[in-house]
Amino acid sequence: FLGFIPLAAGAELITVFGVVNKASGIYGLLSIFTGHPITAAQLVLNIVSLLLLPVFLYALHNVRRQNALPVVAFSYIYFVDMLTNLAFTIYFSVTWFRVFEVTAATEAGKDTSSSLDTASERGLSITIIVLVLLFKVYFCFALFGYARMLVRKAGLRADNGEGKFTRQLQFIMLAIAPSFWRRGGRRAGKGRMVNTLEEGIEMY
C-alpha cells in the first residue's frame, strides 16, 4: 500500500479514514439545529453517512481480525459508497462552480485585476477535487486487493461456503469475476479488462 506500507495496515488505515468520514455526518445534521443552512443533497449525504457508520465500524473490526468474507462484503460496499460519493462530489462541484462564476463575474466587473485570481482559485479547486477522487479509487483498489489476499489465504471459493446464508452470500460475491478471486495467473479466456484490473490491484 503506497509502496511502503503492508497491505493489511493500508486496509485498516483506509477503513479508519472511512469511519472518520462517516462520523462527520453527525456534525452535518447538527447544523440543522444551529440554524446553519443545509441543502437537501447535503442532508441526504449526512444521513447516508450516519447509516453507514456502524457498517464501517464493523468492517474495521473484521479488517483487523482478517475475516475474509466480511472484508469482501465491505469491499463491495466501499465500491458502491465510492460511486455514491463521486456522484455527490460532481453535483456539489458543479453547483459550487456555478455560484463561483456568478460571484467572480460580479467582482470582475468592479475590479479587472481579480480575473487572474479567479482563474487560479478555480484551477486549484479542480486539482484538489481530482486528487481526492483519484485517492478514493486507489483506496477501493487496495481494499479489493486485501480482500482477495484474505480469500486466497482462507481458500474460499464460490461453492464452498458454510451455512445457508453464508453460502449464498459467498457464492454471490465470489461468483462476480471468479478469475479475479481464485488462485492462479492469467488464463487465455480472460478479457483484456479483467487482466488489466488484476495487474492494477497486484500493485497495491
UniProtKB/TrEMBL annotation:
<dbReference type="GO" id="GO:0070916">
    <property type="term" value="C:inositol phosphoceramide synthase complex"/>
</dbReference>
<dbReference type="GO" id="GO:0000139">
    <property type="term" value="C:Golgi membrane"/>
</dbReference>
<dbReference type="GO" id="GO:0070917">
    <property type="term" value="F:inositol phosphoceramide synthase regulator activity"/>
</dbReference>
<keyword id="KW-0812">Transmembrane</keyword>
<protein>
    <submittedName>
        <fullName>Uncharacterized protein</fullName>
    </submittedName>
</protein>
<dbReference type="GO" id="GO:0006673">
    <property type="term" value="P:inositol phosphoceramide metabolic process"/>
</dbReference>
<dbReference type="InterPro" id="IPR013862">
    <property type="entry name" value="Kei1"/>
</dbReference>
<keyword id="KW-1133">Transmembrane helix</keyword>
<dbReference type="Pfam" id="PF08552">
    <property type="entry name" value="Kei1"/>
</dbReference>
<keyword id="KW-0472">Membrane</keyword>
<feature type="transmembrane region" description="Helical">
    <location>
        <begin position="71"/>
        <end position="92"/>
    </location>
</feature>
<feature type="transmembrane region" description="Helical">
    <location>
        <begin position="124"/>
        <end position="147"/>
    </location>
</feature>
<feature type="transmembrane region" description="Helical">
    <location>
        <begin position="38"/>
        <end position="59"/>
    </location>
</feature>
